[in-house]
Input
Amino acid sequence: MTQEMWEIKRLHLKPELVWSMAMSSLRLRMGRTLLTLLTVAACCAFLLFLLTAPISDDPADRQMWGLMITLSLIVSAAGVLNTMLMSVTQRYREIGTIKCLGALDSFVLISVLVESAMLGLAGAILGIFAGLLLSVVIGSISVGLGVFTAAYWSGVFWKIGAAALVGLCLTTFGAALPAYIAAKMPPVEAMRGEK
Output
């Protein structure tokens, strides 16, 4: 027998493999996926609503506006971090198995980050639509048809981009540390289950 037959192969990072693993994982953990999706959507909707809502020039109102944005981001980040941490720790055996099959640490890390980025982007898109709808409905109730002139619609595409970036960053950064820990874990230890 030649030496090539005994060579251990490594799993290569092919985009279609990473995509299929991420979609499979999201489907298997549908409850946690929906919870994270709704948390990110609510954060992005509230953020976009605050960015497009008219505020006065009063420093106290501006300070309250900034405080509401900060608090919504902190609460959303805590919720997303918790769900992403649980999602990764529940996958320790799966991660151990694919590492035993030859997956590199980078494969594990990137596959988890791609999954979380997809989840964050989907939540952000849902939140953007909900936030815009909320802004229009509440604005039309309070100021009537002048809602499009009363709200801060200038630069709305930048505001939408900021909300999408926040949603993407919440899930990706929330999964980064748990994914790194799981990727560095020895395969045998990961196969034992949760730490």
